[in-house]
């Protein structure tokens, strides 16, 4: 009874407040009270002021009102609500936000989780019921909420098909239905959700294909269909989702290939397609996804190589290709993915070697290539990756030794579980210790690379090198390009070129190496210097390093025991090799050097001049030039020119070049002046402009060359003369090849005859006998006499010596062919027509005015070649009763129809003006009009 009294008391308060509100606050209050009772309100985590006498509902926990006093927000998430949602909740007509998530709300008595009249909440914008015990079907009434923006029913037990009318929610931005038991297929109507930003349907029992209509959701940024039973191919329409960033389609039954249309998803960050049955190769269009960070494709049936173009995805952090049918090598460009954190390519058919630059992936922490056929040595650069935590290389064909730098990885623990941190190199028989990395770490295995030498030694003696280790492979490197694969190599005549660091690298049968480095020097080293090159007339200065004695020898019987001897007034006899023996306390050192007399300046060899041409002499590189030559020639400039040379300029020309230091050099050039040669040219016969092109000879008078001039064409190294379009005398030039010096161009001419003729109709036929036409012949062209021939209905010919026009008269109509030929044999053809404009005119003289037949009631003129006619109708007193112009002949439909005429029956005079091709013709006739 107490509870009933309290409830009645609240109803009284509610009714009193209703009078102050502009909306139905009474109904809102009742709905809240029923929610409190149905959802075990007394045990809520927070129920401040609920059901407290005198407390207005705007003070109740989780309730927000608008200015009119109606509920617009009800937020009771994580508040221990239980039981079914009261049907009265739909009476909150102004409600915009309903958050009842993370409670224990259940299905009601009618097996529906939500009130059936949810469509009454027309103002609702956010509905969050996630994390409850709701089940059954998703209420179709939700599809009638026009303002709904967020619908979150995730983490419940909804187990029926999705209602298709959810696609009517035009303002919906987030649809969250994940982690339920929803069955059936994704409604195609979802493609109407143009404002949707997130579509989360993961962890359900959805089946069937992804509808292509999803591609119409142009604002979609996130789609998650993970862990369903969705099948079929990926629709290419998904490539139209230009704002897509996160696509989770993994753990389904998808088949087919990755559509190339996905290359249009330029905003894509993550693409998860793992755990499906997809086939084919990774499409090249994926390089357009420049923002992609995660490409998860493992556990499919993909094939082909790991594509090299993946290196363009520079933002990629996760590349998972495990458990597929991929083959080929790991591309070296994989090292360009500097942001890569996880690289999984295990359980495929990958071959080849691990790229040597793999160490550039400084952020890589998970590297798995196990269960493939990868071969070769382990790259030392891998140890550069300090954050690497998972290294699973087992069951491949790796060989050799663990690089010494891999001791950084000894801190990791051996593991067969690839999902945890650790390493595994087992299953590689050709790897040291068969891939037992723990044994390698614990034994501190190393190859002895130490060696012995007899250094230091005197310059010129033999250096002996000896490796300490036996029965290994050896590789020596040292200064002066020294290399050797012998165990104990020798270097004879050791000198300063071979002093420096020597390194020995010793390799065992597994490819494990050890090395050491020593610095090797010499004692008693000597050297000499010389001031070469030396100008003629200057002093040669030789100098040797310190010692006890010196013995010099050289060209022109030179000998000296001085440390630094000098040779004044040097000549070309002093040029050559100088040797010295330097004795020290420990050694006798032999050295040698070359002395070269310098040459200053330069002379350019002149072109072979022809008589009448200019001779140009050119020198450079000095400050003073003295030229001499035949016939007392002399000059003092670097470059000099002799105009129009003759044969007497043949001979030896010398120039002495001096610089500002006193150095000098003399150069000689021989000049031979040649007589010019003129090509004997062949003459060509006259041609017609209509002739085919003529092959021009490549050899004239024994000289090969090329041709130039009007009409000359070159094709594949041959030259042709084409007369088309030319007229008159044409000058051709033959250019001898440059190898024929002093051969002048040859000239020849070809005369091209051009003729033209035109036949023009000057009078068409206009007689019944068809023999009154005429035409005029006009011509032009070269030649002394011309023959004109015409063929057609009649034929004929005429000869003349000029091009004056002449007429041919009284010829029948028809097509004529006119040929003109000149005395050279050049001809031209023209065609023309003589037309027949004769007209036989038929004029009716009786017309029946009331006839129902158009043939009898219409006046028209009949005949051939009639353009049009005008008609004037006069009565017997000479008065004009009717007039019409531009009437068409032979046209009964548009002639003069007398059925509607006002003319009376009787006899009339008609005047016809008939327009013919030859002009107008007038006819005056009688016309009888009958009733």
The low-confidence parts are: 1-22
What spatial form do the alpha-carbon principal axes imply? flat
Tell me, rounded to a whole number, the average pLDDT: 89
Strand order of the largest sheet: 1-2-4-6-8-10-11-13-15-17-19-21-23-25-27-29
Give the C-alpha Rg.
Answer: 56 Å
Find the count of extended strands (DSSP E, 2+ residues).
77
Helix % is under 10%
The percent range for strand residues is: 35-45%
Discrete helix count: 4
Distance between the termini: 118 Å
Tell me about the largest β-sheet: 16 strands, mixed
Structural class: mainly beta
Please characterize this protein's 3D structure.
- The longest helix is centred in the N-terminal third of the chain and has 17 residues, at about 1-20.
- This protein has four helices and 77 strands.
- Mean pLDDT is about 90; it is low at about 1-20.
- A hairpin with a 3-residue loop joins strand 42 (about 550-555) and strand 43 (about 560).
- The chain is mainly β and about 950 residues long.
- The chain has a 16-stranded mixed sheet with strand order 1-2-4-6-8-10-11-13-15-17-19-21-23-25-27-29, with no helix packed on it. Strands 55-63-61-58-57 form a five-stranded mixed sheet, with no helix packed on it. The protein has a five-stranded mixed sheet with strand order 71-77-76-73-74, with no helix packed on it.
Secondary-structure map:
Blueprint lengths: L1 H17 L6 H14 L24 E3 L5 E5 L6 E3 L12 E3 L4 E3 L19 E3 L6 E2 L13 E3 L4 E2 L15 E3 L21 E3 L6 E2 L13 E3 L4 E5 L12 E3 L4 E3 L14 E3 L6 E2 L13 E3 L4 E5 L12 E3 L4 E5 L12 E3 L4 E3 L14 E3 L6 E3 L12 E3 L4 E4 L21 E3 L5 E2 L5 H7 L7 E3 L3 E2 L4 E5 L5 E5 L5 E2 L5 E2 L8 E8 L5 E8 L1 E2 L4 E3 L9 E5 L4 E6 L3 E3 L5 E2 L8 E8 L4 E8 L6 E3 L10 E6 L3 E6 L3 E3 L3 E4 L8 E8 L5 E8 L5 E2 L8 E2 L5 E3 L2 E2 L2 E6 L3 E4 L2 E4 L6 E9 L6 E2 L1 E8 L1 E9 L9 E9 L4 E6 L4 E5 L5 E6 L2 E9 L4 E8 L11 E3 L5 H4 E2 L8 E7 L5 E8 L8 E2 L8 E11 ...
Parallel strand pairs: 2-4, 3-5, 4-6, 6-8, 7-9, 8-10, 10-11, 11-13, 12-14, 13-15, 14-16, 15-17, 17-19, 18-20, 19-21, 20-22, 21-23, 22-24, 23-25, 25-27, 26-28, 27-29, 28-30, 32-39, 54-62, 55-63, 71-77
Antiparallel strand pairs: 1-2, 31-33, 33-36, 34-35, 34-37, 37-38, 40-41, 41-44, 42-43, 42-45, 45-46, 47-48, 48-51, 49-50, 49-52, 52-53, 56-60, 57-58, 58-61, 59-60, 61-63, 64-65, 65-68, 66-67, 66-69, 69-70, 72-75, 73-74, 73-76, 76-77
Helix pairs in contact: 1-2
């Amino acid at each position: 009874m107490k509870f009933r009294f309290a409830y009645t008391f609240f109803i009284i308060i509610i009714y009193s407040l209703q009078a102050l509100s502009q909306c139905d606050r009474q109904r809102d209050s009742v709905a809240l009270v029923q929610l409190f009772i149905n959802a075990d309100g007394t045990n809520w985590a927070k129920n401040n002021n609920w059901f407290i006498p005198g407390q207005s509902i705007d003070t109740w926990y989780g309730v927000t009102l608008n200015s009119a006093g109606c509920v617009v927000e009800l937020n009771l998430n994580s508040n221990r609500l239980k039981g079914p949602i009261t049907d009265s909740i739909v009476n909150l007509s102004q409600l915009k936000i309903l958050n009842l998530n993370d409670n224990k709300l259940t299905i009601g008595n009618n097996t529906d989780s939500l009130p059936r009249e949810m469509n009454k909440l027309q103002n609702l914008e956010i509905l969050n019921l996630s994390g409850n015990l709701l089940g059954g079907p998703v209420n179709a009434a939700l599809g009638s909420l026009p303002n709904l923006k967020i619908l979150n029913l995730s983490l419940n037990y909804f187990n029926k098909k999705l209602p298709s009318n959810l696609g009517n929610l035009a303002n919906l931005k987030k649809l969250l239905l994940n982690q339920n038991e929803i069955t059936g297929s994704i409604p195609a109507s979802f493609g109407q959700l143009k404002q949707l930003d997130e579509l989360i349907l993961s962890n359900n029992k959805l089946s069937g294909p992804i509808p292509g209509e999803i591609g119409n959701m142009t604002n979609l940024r996130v789609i998650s269909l993970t862990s369903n039973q969705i099948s079929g191919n990926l629709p290419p329409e998904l490539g139209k989702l230009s704002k897509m960033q996160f696509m989770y389609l993994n753990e389904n039954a998808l088949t087919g290939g990755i559509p190339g249309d996905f290359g249009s998803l330029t905003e894509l960050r993550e693409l998860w397609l793992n755990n499906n049955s997809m086939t084919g190769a990774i499409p090249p269009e994926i390089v357009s996804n420049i923002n992609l960070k995660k490409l998860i494709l493992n556990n499919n049936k993909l094939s082909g190589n790991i594509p090299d173009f993946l290196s363009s995805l520079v933002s990629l952090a996760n590349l998972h290709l495990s458990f597929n049918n991929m083959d080929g090598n790991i591309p070296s460009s994989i090292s360009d993915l500097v942001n890569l954190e996880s690289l999984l390519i295990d359980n495929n058919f990958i071959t080849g070697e691990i790229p040597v630059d793999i160490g550039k992936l400084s952020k890589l922490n998970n590297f798995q290539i196990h269960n493939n056929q990868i071969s070769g040595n382990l790259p030392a650069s891998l140890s550069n990756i300090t954050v690497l935590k998972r290294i699973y290389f087992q069951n491949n064909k790796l060989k050799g030794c663990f690089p010494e730098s891999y001791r950084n990885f000894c801190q990791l623990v051996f593991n067969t579980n690839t999902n945890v941190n650790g390493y595994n190199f087992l299953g590689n028989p050709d790897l040291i210790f068969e891939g037992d990395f723990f044994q390698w770490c614990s034994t501190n295995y190393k190859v002895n690379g130490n060696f012995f030498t007899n250094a230091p030694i005197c310059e010129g003696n033999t250096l002996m090198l000896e490796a300490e280790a036996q029965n290994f492979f050896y590789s020596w490197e040292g200064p002066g390009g020294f290399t050797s694969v012998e165990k104990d190599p020798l270097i004879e005549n050791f000198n300063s070129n071979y002093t420096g660091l020597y390194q020995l690298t010793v390799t065992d049968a597994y490819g494990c190496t050890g090395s050491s480095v020593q610095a090797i020097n010499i004692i008693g080293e000597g050297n000499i210097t010389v001031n070469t090159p030396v100008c003629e007339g200057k002093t040669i200065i030789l100098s040797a390093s310190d010692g006890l004695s010196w013995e010099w020898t050289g060209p022109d019987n030179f000998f000296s025991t001085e440390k630094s001897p000098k040779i004044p007034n040097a000549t070309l006899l002093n040029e050559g090799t100088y040797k010295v023996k330097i004795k020290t306390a420990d050694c006798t050192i032999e050295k040698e050097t070359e002395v070269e007399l310098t040459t200053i300046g330069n002379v350019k060899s002149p072109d072979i001049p022809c008589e009448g041409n200019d001779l140009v002499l050119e020198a450079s590189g000095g400050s003073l030039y003295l030229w001499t030559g035949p016939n007392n020639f002399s000059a003092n400039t670097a470059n000099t020119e002799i105009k129009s040379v003759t044969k007497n300029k043949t001979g030896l020309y010398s120039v002495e070049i001096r610089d500002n230091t006193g150095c000098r050099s003399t150069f000689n050039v021989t000049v031979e002046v040649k007589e010019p040669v003129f090509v004997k040219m062949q003459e060509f016969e006259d041609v017609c402009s209509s002739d085919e092109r003529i092959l021009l000879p490549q050899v004239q008078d024994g000289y090969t060359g090329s041709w130039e001039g009007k009409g000359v064409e070159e094709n594949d190294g041959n030259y042709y003369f084409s007369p088309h379009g030319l007229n008159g005398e044409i000058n051709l030039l033959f250019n001898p090849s440059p190898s024929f010096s002093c051969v002048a161009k040859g000239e020849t001419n070809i005369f091209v005859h051009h003729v033209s003729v035109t036949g023009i109709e000057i009078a068409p036929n206009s007689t019944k006998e068809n023999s009154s036409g005429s035409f005029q012949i006009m011509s032009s062209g070269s030649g002394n006499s011309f023959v004109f021939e015409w063929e057609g209905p009649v034929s004929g010919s005429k000869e003349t010596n000029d091009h004056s026009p002449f007429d041919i008269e009284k010829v029948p109509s028809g097509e004529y062919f006119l040929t003109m030929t000149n005395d050279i044999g050049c001809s031209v053809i023209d065609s023309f027509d003589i037309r027949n404009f004769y007209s036989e005119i038929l004029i009716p003289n009786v017309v029946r005015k009331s006839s129902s037949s158009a043939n009898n009631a219409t006046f028209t003129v009949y005949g051939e070649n009639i353009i049009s006619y005008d008609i004037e109708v006069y009565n017997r007193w000479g008065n004009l009763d009717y007039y019409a112009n531009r009437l068409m002949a032979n046209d009964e439909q548009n002639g003069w129809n007398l059925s509607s005429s006002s003319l009376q029956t009787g006899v009339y005079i008609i005047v016809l003006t008939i327009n013919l091709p030859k002009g107008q013709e007038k006819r005056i006739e009688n016309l009888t009009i009958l009733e």
